[in-house]
Amino acid sequence: MEVIQTFADEGKSGLRIDGRDALKALLRAVESGQAPFKVILVYDVSRWGRFQDADESAYYEYVCRRAGIQVTYCAEQFENDGSPVATIVKGVKRAMAGEYSRELSTKVFAGQCRLIEMGYRQGGAAGYGLRRVLLDQSGKEKGALSRGEHKSLQTDRVILRPGPSSEVQVVQNIYTWFIEEGMAEKNIAERLNAMSIPAEGGGTWTRGLVHGVLTNEKYIGNNLFNRTSFKLKKLHVVNAPEMWIRKEGAFEALINKETFYTAQGIIRGRYRRFTDDELLERLRSLYLRKGFLSGLVINESEGMPPASAYSSRFGSLIRAYTLVGFQPLRDYRYLEINKVLRRLHPEIVAETTRVIESVHGQVNRDARTDLLSINGEFTVSMVLARCESTPAGRHTWRVRMDAGLDPDITVAIRLKPSNDEPLDFYLLPRLDFASCRLRLADHNRFELEGYRFDSLDYLVRMANALAVDIKVIVSKLHLLQGICSEALHVLRDREFSTQVAASLRKMKPSRQIECAEMMVAANCMTVRYAQALLAATPNHLLLTPRRKSPRASQDQINQLERETENLRARYRVTELTYADDMLNLVVAKGYVGKLLAHPAIESYLRKWHADLFPELLAVVSLSTVDE
Question: 259 near 175, Cβ under 8 Å?
């Protein structure tokens, strides 16, 4: 028996099939009827997943057997021959796999609660006016964590500290304006934007951001946890206050408690439980001011209870409208949604441009069409897909691609049912989507779900992947000089910096090979790791022996061992999915085209790689995957 392909979801949760790209790819291959294999080797029953419904993993095995492909378990003591005994044993093991996840969830939650009660931060951004600070296992500060950075050692802990004095002053001003001047959150946001004060992350202030500053207890130094739950990846649940885990005085406060609770009293007073008459009186006053009503109008008006309160109290918004004398002759919500969409699209385009440029990508935006050119390699069109609800409670999204613009990738932004903010993003390459219209549902087939992402981080990685200037290529021509061919062969599929190469060049060939193998085995190509290996290299294995022959310090050895163990525990993401291949092909196509446009590179390839050059031309001219 020969293993011809491996499908591995390393480091992925087995509670849901969402995110299991390799398993989806396996099922696609099986259901296509063209799988190049006849037997699937599975380590044990739990590898299908630790689903809380044991029948789900049974179904995926059934799909494989239905297609005529045998499923064989490597580490199980029974033979998977379809006998009653095998069926019973598999059912028990599937239930045990799900129970393992439930028990682990309970233990992890208990550990998180314990750390909260000790005053440590559990994930999430610090928030405006605050910064995350990293502590080692002894409680000594190691430094501040920048946005997007994470701790590297399990024994490290994170706490919050006040940020720059300018941000702290803004937080205090927000409370002053809200309490003493009686300004609403929306007006405070407008004032901050008029003063050109950026919000967290460099964006603009909104009513929601200001409200978050006014209501979050971290600004008085309290550490809160378990306000919401997402256990076993089922449903997001908002927990009652008595279920919250709280550590008071965990951090240095930016606001005194008296000021904070005064603000909470004002907010609670706005949202007290109104009588039916009070609700209708406020709605009637809003109708007289605006001339029409809608859910968005109600939610965006200061001092108004949310539209859901009217729908819940009176059975529906339409009945509440009738009670105040408003008879909608048309769907005014459509007008409000269009207004939101006209505002939302340029905001998303601008934010995407800013993030790509922050990682040194180049974005050129066509002011007339909003088409984005990324690094001069591929083009992106961003379209909003409005959510439409059916009478049965389902949701659909119609995507209209800009066929006339012919973008390489269309980013379809699905909106939430409220149509006021993004739900998720579909990155649809033209290579795989010839039609200019597409309809999405709550749950779509595997081929579409592979292109779904919760954020635009993947697009940013695509922009960052090959954002290389020709001058950079020329500057790195001598990168590999001084490294033996055997070591280069070990590192052939790895990316590493000039500093790593510099460390390897100081070693003799035998040591270069040994260190290259260690770096690949640990999946770590960092400068710090290479320097640690150099420091641990004996004097006789260096090209230029040290004047003294100091041994690596015990601290260096301990640090090397800790980092190696930590890095060995990391998973390597294997991009086996069809969607990833298509999106990578878009980037490669644009990048090769950019290289061939350079006369010197084209001449070099024609002269020295005549056999490869036609293949590169074919990649550049590719318009669909069917070619």
Answer: yes
Helix axes 554-568, 527-535, angle to 10 degrees: 140
Tell me the per-residue pLDDT of 389-441, one tens digit each, with 9 for 90 and over: 877 778 999 888 876 778 889 999 999 888 888 899 999 988 887 777 888 99
Residue 51, number of CB atoms within 10 A of its CB: 22
Q: What is the 3-state secondary structure (H, E, C) of 250-282?
A: CCCCCCCHHHHHHHHHHHHHHCCCCCHHHHHHH
**Shortest CA distance to 387 belongs to which of 437, 422, 352?**
422
- The tens digit of pLDDT for each residue in 352-401 reads 888 888 877 888 888 777 789 988 888 999 888 888 887 777 899 988 88
Residue 107 has pLDDT above 60, yes or no: yes
The total number of residues shown for the chain amounts to 627
Query: CA 64 → CA 13, 17, 43, 576, distances in Å?
Result: 21, 16, 16, 19
For residue 506, the 8-state DSSP code is: T
Q: Give the chain's radius of gyration (CA, Å).
A: 29
Helix (H, G, I), strand (E, B) or coil at 309: helix
190: CB partners within 8 A, 6+ apart: 205
CB atoms within 10 A of CB 280: 17
Helix (H) or strand (E) holding 135: strand 130-135
Q: Which domains does the chain have, with CATH numbers?
A: 21-115 (no CATH), 130-269 (3.90.1750.20), 273-329 (no CATH), 334-465 (3.40.1350), 470-552 (no CATH)
CA 567 vs. chain centroid, Å, equals 21
